[in-house]
Specification:
The chain is mainly beta and about 240 residues long. Helix content is about 10%, strand content about 55%.
Length: about 240
């Protein structure tokens, strides 16, 4: 009887170990496929920016942006970063103009983006629906009250936009406020094997005059606001 029990315990331990190893060896179970990184990868977006004032659309701008990984570099600590060249053009027929650079690092625990001397934790692994994590751990000065949280949502969902359908996506909710005075929505949709296919940011500051003398209070009257929506037009790899 003791030998049988010992066999069962050992066999259960082996099964458990094999399961853990499978998760470790399988990058898809961790979520790396939602942001594929390799030198030569590029993404082109159709971008719309809107500005609102006194409940009117004051300005609307459309253009294309491109992100292209052109190299892998090391920082002073030996950490590797993918160097991403940022470009912009007024239309599909215009020439690209380089307007910036950002860096992306990938480790077994997270994906970080560094731009304008600010480092943001864009993802943590493994991805889990409903999981929240601190995105500004490197810039909040260690003050928990200043923490900004990102949350995973709609893991594995189908996402359709601009005539394209992506069978397996992940939404990263980055900001969400909805009050009588202020509205903010920021999120990013990542498609398996492709990367970011949509980035949306919307902000509204509504009438804050409770007397109603200077503007209609409680009626969604926009004092100031802005939108920036980036929709993937194409992606691929340049050898």
């Amino acid at each position: 009887m003791k030998r049988i029990l010992l066999f069962v315990v050992v066999w259960a331990s082996l099964l458990s170990s094999c399961g853990d190893d499978e998760i470790t060896r399988d990058p898809d179970s961790l979520g790396y496929q939602y942001y594929p990184l390799a030198v030569g990868n590029y993404w082109i977006y159709n971008v719309t920016e809107n500005e609102y004032s006194r409940n009117k659309l004051e300005e609307s701008t459309t253009y294309q942006s491109r992100e292209r990984i052109d190299a892998i570099i090391e920082d002073q600590t030996g950490k590797e970063w993918y160097r991403v060249e940022l470009s912009r053009r007024a239309s599909a027929n215009a020439g690209w103009v380089i307007n910036g650079v950002k860096l992306i690092s990938l480790s077994s625990s997270d994906l970080r983006v560094q731009e304008n001397n600010q480092t943001v934790v864009q993802m943590v692994f493994p991805v889990k629906n409903g999981y929240s994590f601190v995105s500004n751990a490197f810039t909040n000065g260690g003050d928990p009250e200043q923490n900004a949280y990102y949350t995973y949502a709609q893991l594995g969902s189908v996402f359709s936009e601009a005539g394209k359908t992506y069978d397996k996506t992940l939404t990263v909710l980055q900001a969400e406020t909805d009050t009588q005075i202020e509205y903010e929505q920021k999120f990013e949709v990542l498609a398996s094997g492709i990367g970011p296919v949509n980035r949306t940011y919307k902000y509204r500051y509504f009438c804050d005059d409770s007397t109603g003398e200077s503007c209609p209070y409680g009626e969604g009257y926009i004092l100031t606001g802005s939108d920036k929506i980036e929709v993937l037009e194409s992606s691929g790899k340049i050898d």
